[in-house]
Amino acid sequence: MSDDHGTIESLSSLAHDAQESYPPAADFRAAANQNSSDIYLRAAADPEGYWAEQAQQRLSWKKPFTEVLDWTNPPFAKWFANGELNVAENCLDRHVANGLGDRVAYYFEGEPGDSRSITYAELTHEVKRAANMLASLGVTAGDRVAIYMPLIPETVIAMLAVVRLGAAHSVVFGGFSAESLRARIDDVEAELVITADGGYRKGRVSPLKPVVDQALVFDNADGKPSTVKNVLVVKRGGNDIDMVAGRDLWWHEEITAYDGEHTAQGFPAENPLFILYTSGTTGKPKGILHTTGGYLTQVATTHSDIFDLKPESDVYWCTADVGWVTGHSYGVYGPLANGATQVMYEGTPDTPNWGRWWEIIQKYKVSIFYTAPTAIRSCMKVGRQVPEQYDLSSLRLLGSVGEPINPEAWRWYHDVIGAGKTPIVDTWWQTETGAIMISPLPGLTTLKPGSAQIAQPGISVAVVDDEGNPVSNGNGGLLVVERPWPSMVRNVWGDPQRFIDTYWDKFGDKYFAGDGARLDEDGDIWFLGRVDDVMNVSGHRLSTTEIESSLVGHHAVAEAAVVGADDETTGQRVVAFVCIKTQQEILAPEDAEVVLKKHVADLIGAIARPANVYVVNELPKTRSGKIMRRLLKDVAEGKTVGDVTTLADTVAITAIAKQVSGN
Ligand code: WTA
After folding, report:
1. For residue 282, pLDDT beyond 70
2. Residue 538 Cβ contacting ligand 1 at under 6 Å
3. In terms of CATH, what superfamily is 531-661?
4. Distance from residue 124's CA to the centre of ligand 1 (Å)
């Protein structure tokens, strides 16, 4: 191929990329929930009025609100504060009262192949019984309950039973370690933990209750025993477990004593709903607090508009585990508030083989499917011949969340899974935002693969420079949210100063999201990844600092540096560089990799396990002694090492580069 030819070809392919766009199909647009761009203008003209209208139309209030937003004490927002509602009633009872009791709420598919369908009437009945059971165990409004469960219907029943009583839940993802679970239990001072014996994962039972036992047995760093009085155990895995007399109770034995009579009481809209922990830039995870009225308003609105939900005919499936915010907002609260029929699948996409997801879509005729780019890329690697064996013609809309979706994965998703016809909504949001903030609206937006595009109606965002000045189109900067929004984080649990410092210190009354972003010539937003020490591995947030402190906590480690290296499939992967203490007998360098990977997994959880651990003699440092993580990231990615002018000496980085590249 001549140079000339190559140049012309690459230029024309670039031009194609730049223009590649997918306008909504006429029939999709005509039937879409939102198909007039007036909505953006209306909402922008009066955001509070817009949200008040959503709150009134989409939810049922025990006591109507007369105040919308209270921003008199920024950054502590209150929405609909003098209104009262019951979240569980909004998700359940009112649908039954509206004659929708026979509609399926969840089609549950267990990993071993067992399945159950649960109607709104049945789910309501089970939640009422569970609420009675929890009440008799002492759960009352204002309490916190920890939930450590597989993805099974009882998990949702437990969550809704807790909130029905006006208490708040803190769901801890089943992949977290005993240490991490205990830290969260301590932080919220939970007196009750709801768990299961175990759940199915990758073809075997993964034990959960034994992890709870381990989490509760020790005195914490403050020398205190756990606050937990009872552990309620759902039978799922059938694995052998110990039951501690007086503390532990089987769910299926206890529940028989309770009937389905339970009247939902209204609670103020700013009553805590849940606390969900997420990694920050310092070692300790932050407890992100969400409340009821504003949260439910925004998750219901976005779920309906962005996914174009037709509750009477759609089958919707969000693949996220409820241990993450996506599972909370778009696997439980948004869809249930909207009366949707959903699929819930317990296991992993590759069990027993990579056809599993597509088989489920075929079986339940899923029409709306919401997953993460990392999963799409894994499926791409396996090849299109797998999904092509299944009938996916029921799909009419696809969604993406968790990290930027690269255009190549976008096209594969669109063409192979969506038969070249389904719109894709690339949704940007965070644990802190509670609900989707930036996304196309499928009946209105001309899609651009790789861009999350525009703020939702009623949401005001900007890309700004370091001083907080908005950048012009064609430029990059930091993403901020300019006005309070209904589902915004209300606080960091127990640490208001950290809430202020993390999100509000940088730009005053604008929320600093921690993401880099670029505006294209049309003003559409393209995300560029985190600008802080947070890594994004398979769409899950991990803290560099937290993993470094766990490594340094190992008796043999003198120093550690962790970086998130770009990875084709998982977005980023965790790469650690450690210096071992000089007494070699503590830990032989050849054992270090295995031992330290396990150490991190034990301390934080398997999701944080480094992909690589390199034992090095010295870490590269600036003259002032700061570790140069940027250079280590280059090395881990096999790139030429960048600017080294600020280094004290370049010996360390040269040696590491040699070691990593293996020559
Ligand atoms: C990233 C997940 C680009 C981002 C809901 C954000 C995204 C972090 C997207 C939040 C997207 C999420 N495009 N980046 N569509 N969605 N992110 O709290 O860096 O687990 O700050 O919430 O994921 O992750 P979290």
Report:
1. no
2. no
3. ANL, C-terminal domain (3.30.300.30)
4. 32
